[in-house]
């Protein structure tokens, strides 16, 4: 074969950006090791230096979201709210909540990083910036799907822990939410116990209003606790006779959900395994053919039709991956 798949990379035009990328990656890895922080948290701290412009933009979006939600301009059925909750769940599951990173900050960082990386890769492989506009949205969706998949273990554990905590508190709810939490704090699962300790501290030490403290607790526990927290707020604010009986529904629904989750998790693991196996076989065959045959390689990387086919293949794979991720997110 007269040419190689990496001929462009080996040239001066390709070697320079590749070298820069590797230097940046090595620097990030070194900083991660030194600071012992997740990469997203490290980037968040770095972006803290750009608070003048970047920070104002992000915090304005955050303030607008909470204001619109508070006044009823948007509701939980809106895509904007669902996206915000998805990002909030990711922050909790990736153990980034303590860093103070906000959902819109996470979104902005991922979009910028993926756009830069895709631009460089498209320039090297296709010699065209135009492909960047096609591949960037696909890569962004794929990145969030991968992040969610990575967070699944913590996600599952957190949800099961929240369900256990709700059941424990509901059994003693008649004495009041704060009292029930205090009495149950030592038997609440360890991984979410700090959130409930913060709740007690917010009420007793910081003098938070009970509704504010419960909403803060809801943020730390995630959307799985939405129904429970709403019932707690109603219980504390209305104090009607017999209203504590509504928490029996929480326990019954939680028990049903736990059985349902066990069955669905088993089914999703089978689907995920089949998906990974199928995609791996397709990619091995495709890149094997591209690496061996010059004609095929030139067709895919040098022609508009070939570029479009590669983009379509990537889109199909990502849509499947996104659908599987969506079903899992919706179920869990």
Q: How much β-strand is present in the residues?
A: under 5%
For the record, the count of structural domains works out to: 2
What is the residue-averaged pLDDT?
A: 76
What is the β-strand count?
A: 0
Helix content: over 70%
Taking the alpha carbons of the first and last residues, their distance comes to 51 Å
Question: Strands, helices and their partners?
Answer:
Elements (H helix, E strand, L loop, with lengths): L6 H4 L1 H24 L3 H9 L3 H20 L8 H15 L9 H23 L4 H21 L1 H19 L6 H8 L8 H12 L5 H12 L4 H13 L8 H46 L1 H9 L1 H28 L1
Helix pairs in contact: 2-6, 4-6, 5-6, 5-8, 6-7, 7-15, 8-9, 8-13, 10-11, 11-12, 13-14, 13-15, 14-15
Give the structure's gist in a few sentences.
By secondary structure, the chain is an all-alpha fold.
What can you see in these coordinates?
This protein is an all-alpha fold and 332 residues long. It has two domains: 1-150, no CATH class; 152-332. It is 79% helix and 0% strand. The protein is built from 15 helices and no strands. It has helices spanning 7-10, 12-35, 39-47, 51-70, 79-93, 103-125, 130-150, 152-170, 177-184, 193-204, 210-221, 226-238, 247-292, 294-302, 304-331. Helix 11 packs antiparallel against helix 12 (226-238). The longest helix has 46 residues, at 247-292. The N and C termini lie far apart (51 Å).
